[in-house]
Design brief:
The protein has about 160 residues and is α+β, with helices and mostly antiparallel strands. It is about 20% helix and about 55% strand. The protein is built from 2 helices and 13 strands; from the N terminus they run E-H-E-E-H-E-E-E-E-E-E-E-E-E-E. A hairpin with a 5-residue loop joins strand 2 and strand 3. The longest helix is centred in the first third of the chain and has 24 residues. It starts with a strand and ends with a strand.
Length: about 160
């Protein structure tokens, strides 16, 4: 997942300020004691999370960027005439929510499954069982533009990751 922009109103509501750097990029900096404390706690937790992710990356497909990792796993569940969509992210700064879709197709039909919602954590995971025609095989991906909204105002956008079954 990569930072693709900032929302100043979200940043301000959580004690951060968006600054414009000399090179034309933007950054978010904590400006309240609460925001500074939150970032200090996250720094230690992030070091541990990255260490853990590295240990498991060989068995867990992760797409990692400068603000977090995203994950997608889809498989058929013949007993239910459905597919199972497991998707998740882990971000460097607390997320307050996400705009997240998984799109794809089976042999018979296209689908767009929404996972939008609130969150107040550095991790999020969801599983949907989707009854669908042609569930036996297909492909899916995290839709381009899917993102987590971070407390520092950052938009942490998913790296488009796909899966097939």
């Amino acid at each position: 997942m990569v930072i693709t922009g900032y929302d100043a109103s979200v940043a301000e509501a959580h004690g951060f300020k968006i600054v414009h750097n000399a090179d034309g990029t933007e950054s978010s900096i904590p400006v309240t004691a609460a925001a500074n404390e939150a970032m200090a706690q996250l720094t230690a937790a992030e070091a541990n999370r990255l260490s853990t992710s590295a240990k498991h990356s060989a068995v867990t497909p992760l797409a990692q960027g400068n603000c977090g990792t995203d994950h997608l796993d889809v498989y058929a569940r013949p007993s239910a005439g459905a597919i199972v969509i497991n998707t998740a992210y882990s971000v460097n700064t607390t997320s307050i929510g996400q705009v997240w879709h998984v799109v794809g197709n089976t042999a018979n039909v296209a689908f767009n499954e929404s996972f939008n919602g609130a969150n107040f954590s550095t991790t999020w995971t969801a599983t949907h069982v989707v009854p669908i025609s042609g569930y036996g095989h297909g492909q899916a991906e995290i839709q381009a533009g899917s993102h987590a909204i971070l407390i520092n105002g950052g938009t942490c956008t998913a790296i488009v990751e796909g899966d097939s079954w």
